[in-house]
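Most newcomers find our protein records easier to grasp once they have seen one. A record pairs a protein's sequence with a compact description of its fold. An example says more than a description, so a record of this kind follows:
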Amino acid sequence: MRRVLTRNGYLILNVTNRYSYVTLSENLYKRVKKVRFIRRALAVLRRWIVQEGQLTEIPNNRTHAPRQFDRDLRKYGFHKVTHNFFRFSPLPVPLDWLFPSTCRAIGRWMERFSRRPLGILGGGYLVMARKER
């Protein structure tokens, strides 16, 4: 990215926030789902509660610590212009599927904290940076 951007060019990146309770609960849920009898029990519960029995896989993704990510941007010649946290949820994974519309609505309301200290609760970190060198 640094190679193809011109000087003063803008970079917009979105990374997964390692410290979000959404990310932490997803990682725990992925581990638990690997146990066959737990996976079957979860599918039965899901079918009984929300009339959907298929459990989808959560993709493996690289996670980042926001402060370290900012330091790495500086190290590679970028100046952070602004940031936003996003993907808020009042319930951890997989409980968020019990009340999907409510969780989405509350998550949107929680986005008002995206640039405040409570923003760290967001599952994603969106950064706009400018190439300096």
Summary: The radius of gyration is 18 Å. DSSP finds four helices and four strands in the chain. The chain has a mean pLDDT of 86.
